[in-house]
């Protein structure tokens, strides 16, 4: 989503199949949001939070905002985050971490890699009797399992999804909020998998976090009054594969989806006056829910 410098002299008001006007800086992107100053349609990448509604970069740059210099100097995303020069930075870092660990796994034996034994999500031994892994106090596995992959198709599908879903969300939420969303969704997937799946075999992959991004995208599109059909169709297809394809940890997918959608809802619907407080509270509640689920399951296994 590279930003087009400047704006055309005569903004286009093209309309997509859903009848929404196109952003005046990105005419190919239908949007239901307009700048509160110039009334031109603006897409999520162009939205800058104002005291009332949203403004376009041109109005902010020209000092046509609310008249307060601090607001013009510090434009915000729809969720209140700082607008970054590179809206893909965190997505690139996450891709890099996943790629580095994937290469390390392949270099140390693939499916027989010792890294998988040490970092994958695990709660019981291979016979299903002895508590190990998370149940033995290795809680870090809830996080490290999110970045592990063993097979090329699994890795490729998750990374393509991350590259497709990540940048628009990162641009809309801001770097810090996007990072929190990704990690919490991944932890939510790990927690539900730990709770419901038979953890005699290692579980790993970024799928829980990816489903969290998918849920967050649906919430964001609904908030912006965008056409929901494409994302709902994509979500339906992915859920169908989740439950019909063998050897897929559906628990991780559902857990990530629920947590990602819930966190995104709290971020994009928080009242402007208490936005930061609501965001912190939303993330804290999600994190505490993960901790509670893990504690309950651990007590079941060691009790």
UniProtKB/TrEMBL annotation:
Transmembrane segments: 178-197, 203-221, 252-270, 277-299
Domain Peptidase S54 rhomboid residue range list: 137-268
Major location (coarse): membrane
GO biological process, one term: proteolysis
Superkingdom per UniProt: Bacteria
Positions of region (Disordered): 1-26
Alphabetical keyword list: Hydrolase, Membrane, Protease, Transmembrane, Transmembrane helix
Record localization: Membrane
GO cellular component terms, semicolon-separated: membrane
Membrane topology according to the record: Multi-pass membrane protein
GO molecular function ontology, one term from the record: serine-type endopeptidase activity
Domain (B box-type): residue spans on this chain: 23-49
Record-stated family: Belongs to the peptidase S54 family.
Name of the protein: Rhomboid family intramembrane serine protease
Species of origin: Streptomyces tubercidicus
């Amino acid at each position: 989503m590279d930003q087009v410098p400047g704006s055309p002299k005569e903004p286009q008001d093209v309309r997509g199949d859903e009848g929404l006007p196109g952003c005046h800086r990105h005419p190919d992107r239908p949007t239901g949001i307009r700048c509160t100053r110039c009334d031109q349609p603006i897409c999520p990448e162009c939205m800058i939070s104002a005291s009332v509604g949203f403004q376009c970069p041109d109005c902010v740059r020209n000092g046509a905002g609310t008249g307060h210099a601090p607001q013009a100097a510090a434009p915000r995303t729809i969720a209140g985050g700082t607008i970054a020069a590179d809206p893909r930075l965190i997505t690139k870092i996450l891709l890099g971490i996943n790629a580095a660990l994937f290469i390390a796994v392949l270099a140390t034996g693939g499916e027989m890699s010792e890294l998988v034994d040490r970092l994958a999500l695990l709660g019981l031994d291979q016979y299903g009797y002895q508590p190990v892994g998370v149940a033995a106090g290795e809680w870090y596995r809830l996080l490290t399992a999110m970045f592990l992959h063993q097979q090329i198709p699994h890795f490729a599908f998750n990374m393509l999804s991350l590259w497709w879903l990540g940048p628009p969300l990162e641009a809309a939420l801001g770097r810090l909020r996007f990072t929190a969303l990704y990690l919490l969704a991944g932890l939510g997937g790990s927690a539900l998998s730990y709770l419901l799946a038979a953890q005699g075999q290692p579980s790993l992959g970024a799928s829980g976090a990816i489903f969290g991004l998918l849920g967050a995208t649906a919430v964001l599109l609904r908030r912006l009054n965008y056409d929901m059909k494409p994302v709902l169709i994509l979500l339906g297809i992915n859920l169908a594969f989740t439950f019909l394809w063998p050897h897929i940890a559906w628990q991780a997918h559902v857990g990530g989806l629920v947590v990602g959608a819930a966190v995104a809802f709290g971020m994009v619907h928080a009242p402007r006056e208490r936005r930061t407080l609501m965001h912190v509270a939303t993330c804290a509640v999600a994190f505490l829910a993960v901790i509670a689920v893990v504690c309950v399951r651990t007590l079941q296994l060691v009790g």
